[in-house]
Amino acid sequence: MTLVAQDIGVRLGDAQILKGVQAAFARGQVSAIVGPNGAGKSTLLDCLTGLRLPDRGEVLLDGTRLADILPGQRARRLGYLPQVQDVHWDIDARALVAMGRFPHRGAFSGESEADRAAIDDAMMAMDVTGFAGRSVNSLSGGERARVLVARVLATQPDWLLVDEPLANLDIAHQLDMLAAMRRAADNNGMGVVMVLHDLSHAMNFADHAVMLDRGQVAASGGPANALSAQNIESVYHVRAKWLEIGNGQKLLHSAPSD
To answer: What is the pTM for the complete model shown?
Structure first.
């Protein structure tokens, strides 16, 4: 039960965005994809979802080429939340979450008992049941983000792939979102793959990290190894030190390099 990027290469115009990327992700784990701006993080996630076909290499889902899996089957197995999370139409929160069931029932068929149970479970998991009848566009950014995650969870996918889920959230909502990702892996057995900017969050919440640098894998493995101060200094060109802040949590202290 793995999702594997095998020698992935992506070119956009004259720019080589990804260069021979090798990375493997496992279900039941939270994985973080990190790296500086322009490192190729979102492009790699797009390849893992099947939204972008690599120019070289392939993505394997449980040993099967992702490109060979029918779109409907991919939609049921791979849940994706993009970086841009705007909702451009007036719809209540429950109706938006219910859209996560379309891969199972189609857009125009009625809800089954299984659909209703999945929708209710997803909304409870993200603590948005109280917003069910409210317009999504009346919610705060943090509330709307939780509803959008609930929509993906309602699909009951094997994998949850999210691009910068913490963008525009305050600290409390960031921690709530990360806790929800952790529960999805621990309680539901999903494979969670997140693009993150904050290395402290990656260190404290992930089981596995892939650090990209200029389109290549600079480090991968457990966060303690992949996100070592030495690797951070090499890739980000800063001085770095991990500080223990209690309960096994770590905080990254960084400063410009000399």
So the answer is: 0.94
